Amino acid sequence: MMSNQILERRLQLRKKPQQERSIQRLEAILEAAVALFLEKGVAETTMSEIALRAGVSIGSLYQFFPQKAAVIKALHERFAAQLEGFISQVFAGVQTLDEAAERAAECLTALHGMFRQQRIYMSLWQAIVTDRDLSHLSGDFHQHIIALFYRDLAHLVPESDFERFRINLKVMILATGEVIRFTTQQPDDIAQAHLAQWRRIVRSRVFAY
After folding, report:
1. Would you place residue 129 in the very low, low, confident or very high pLDDT band (cuts 50, 70, 90)?
2. Quick check: is 46 in a domain?
3. What is the DSSP string of 5-63?
4. pTM given for the model
5. Domain around 48
C-alpha cells in the first residue's frame, strides 16, 4: 500500500504558477492533455506526448506534474468545479418536494447535454474510477454533492426520515452517473428514451414521502 505521503507527492501539482508565462505553460499542458485523452484515451497517452503536444520540454512538464495521475487529478478538479457551479444551483430556493422532483428531472437533461458536449468529463471519470489512488476523488465529489443537496432540501423532510432521504439522494446521484455514462455513448433517440424513463423514476420515487 502506497503511503499517504508518497501518494500525495504522486498526485499534487508540484508548483503553482505565479508569472503569466508559467500560467500559460500550465494551460498549454492541460489543454494538450485533454486533446490527447480524447484522441487516444487516457491510459494510452504518455507524459512525453503531452509535453510534445503542449510545446514544452519534458522537464518543464515534470516541474508541474510528477506523473500522469497528477495531470488527471488537476483536470478532474477543474471540471468538478465547473459541474459544481451548475449542480449547486439545482435545488436552490426549492419550497416543496414536488418542486424538487421536477428540478431533479430537468437537471438530467442539462447534465446529459453537458457530458455529451464535454466528452472529457466521461474520459476523466473512467480514468479515476479505475485507478485505486484516484478513485477516492469520485467518492469525495459524490459526498460533496450530497451535502449540497441535503443543505437545500433537508427542511422539506421530516426529521424521522433524514437518514432515508440521505440514502435516496446518494442512490439518485450514483444511478444518475451511470445513466449519463450510458446515454452519452448512445444515439440520440436511445439516449432520450432512457433519460425520459429515468426522469419518471426520479419524479415518482426519489422524493416520494
Report:
1. confident
2. yes
3. HHHHHHHS-S----SHHHHHHHHHHHHHHHHHHHHH-TTT--HHHHHHHHT--HHHHHH
4. 0.82
5. 13-66
